[in-house]
Amino acid sequence: MQVIETLAEGLKREIKVVVPAKDMEQRMNERLAEAKDKVRINGFRPGKVPMSHLKKVYGKSVMAELVNEIIREKPSAILSERGEKSATQPEVTMTEDEAEADKILNAEADFEFTLSYEVIPPIELKPVSGIKVVREVVDIEEGEVEDQIRKIGESARSYETKKGKAAEGDRVTMDYVGKVDGVAFDGGTDTDAELVLGSNRFIPGFEDQLVGVKAGDEKVITVTFPEDYPAKNLAGKEATFDITVKEVAAPGEITLDDELAKKLGIESLDRLREIVRGQIESQFGSVTRQKVKRQILDQLDEMYKFETPTRLVEAEFDNIWRQINTDLAQSGKTFEDEDTTEEKARDEYRTLAERRVRLGLVLSEIGEKAGVGVTEEEMQRALYAQLQQFPGQEKQILDFFRKTPGASASLRAPIFEEKVVDHLLGEIDVTDKKVTKEELLADDEAEGAEKPAKKAAPKKKAAAKADDAAEGEEAAPKKKAAPKKKAAEGDAE
């Protein structure tokens, strides 16, 4: 077999591989000889089939198997011999001419194919002792825990029917039909809908007009959907809602005691406090870690400058660009709404893709040199987490990871990256700094890992996201989308 380098330009490589016809024929003969005693052909006793007849019957199929084996096995062996790592799966090209292919399968012509790939550039690791980060730490006050428990307790709050008018904090049970220009619209109708006045779950102006209603009242209220409402057919439109009030109920008192904890399935109030404190610490800890990780990545980005494999960058850019366009479509916005243009956004996100690829290669090299690995148990936990996100689709997800080449890498990569960050935290200079909750959650775009592209993305402020996480889930389940505020508001990305 001949291996001839035909292109070495930057990171790009092209290799021509030639397997002589006589070598292919020899391997075919060996394969047929092994099968001679096993095949059964009418008119011949077992083991007595002439080799010429075997070639005539099975020669081409055996040669096809050999071609497939070579294509499957040789690229990695060739790269290993050359001491190279391909950034992506090498692209294999060979003749598509039927006449030429037939000659190869008949051992009348050499089997030739070409490998095209980009190498991962050599990375000379630099000392990380000069990296300095500040780890912001928040002390969780008792008041924070008690406030959170009180909010959680609202999910177990009882309501008692009242005869008077609905006031702030009361729960109104109603039927409603939403209309635009007198015509009911999809998603704008509900029966026995429950709404706590003051919860701000519905679009602005909706709840205010229910203050003062009584059971049995029928009322038409008028509201205007926000300009950025996700449903484009409703955004900015004036709508009316025909309301039939079925019940007004006053809230009962929330008492923070063991009984409240038991209603929530917890054995005692003290245990509930422990759980809530742990959740808050975990939520703040996640923000702290992300800020520390961002500082590490920013400094590594300054330390390493090298050419990145184009195919990896394009793949990463495609992932980012697909998500950005999905976000824009869901929000009903355009690039112009985000004070940019599509062309400028493409340039910014391509820069981001290059940064991600470069840092990914650096972290990979650091992890490899440090002996960082991902265990089978960690992979199983990650897979289980995926299954939990999509109840009812477990079989499809398992099949996807079983049958899709490289799918498991999407589980391994984030685990590996976090373990490399853990390794770095043991090597670099880390200074702890006590901060307030507000300081920790402050949105500092200048430190953002995706700072080149901030303007283009229709994303919420980080502080809002972190506040949502710290405050826990909404106590009441959300109703239909029509009269609510925009769906993305207050949700984590």
Description:
This protein has 493 residues and is of the alpha+beta class. It has helices spanning 21-35, 51-82, 98-105, 142-153, 258-263, 269-303, 310-331, 342-370, 376-389, 394-403, 409-425, 437-441, 462-471; strands at 2-9, 12-19, 91-94, 111-118, 132-137, 159-161, 171-180, 183-196, 218-224, 238-251, 429-434. The strands form 3 sheets. Strands 6, 7, 8, 9 and 10 form a 5-stranded antiparallel sheet that branches. The chain is elongated and about 100 Å long. The chain starts with a strand and ends in a 22-residue tail after the last helix.
Instruction: Give the topology string: H per helix, E per strand.
Output: EEHHEHEEHEEEEEHHHHHHHEHH
Strand segment count: 11
Shape: elongated
SS-based structural class? Answer: alpha+beta
Number of domains: 3
**CATH homology-level superfamily of the largest domain:** Trigger factor, C-terminal domain
CATH fold group of the largest domain: Trigger factor, domain 2
Can you give the helix content as a percent range?
40-55%
**Low-confidence parts:** 445-493
Q: Briefly, what CATH class of the largest domain?
A: Mainly Alpha
Q: Specify the CATH architecture of the largest domain.
A: Orthogonal Bundle
Mean pLDDT: 84
**How large a portion of the residues is in β-strands, by DSSP E?**
15-25%
Radius of gyration: 32 Å
Between the first and last Cα atoms, what is the distance in angstroms?
A: 53 Å
Function: Involved in protein export. Acts as a chaperone by maintaining the newly synthesized protein in an open conformation. Functions as a peptidyl-prolyl cis-trans isomerase.
InterPro entries: PPIase_dom_sf, PPIase_FKBP_dom, Trig_fac, Trigger_fac_C, Trigger_fac_C_sf, Trigger_fac_ribosome-bd_bac, Trigger_fac_ribosome-bd_sf, Trigger_fact/SurA_dom_sf
Keywords: Cell cycle, Cell division, Chaperone, Cytoplasm, Isomerase, Rotamase
Catalytic activity: [protein]-peptidylproline (omega=180) = [protein]-peptidylproline (omega=0)
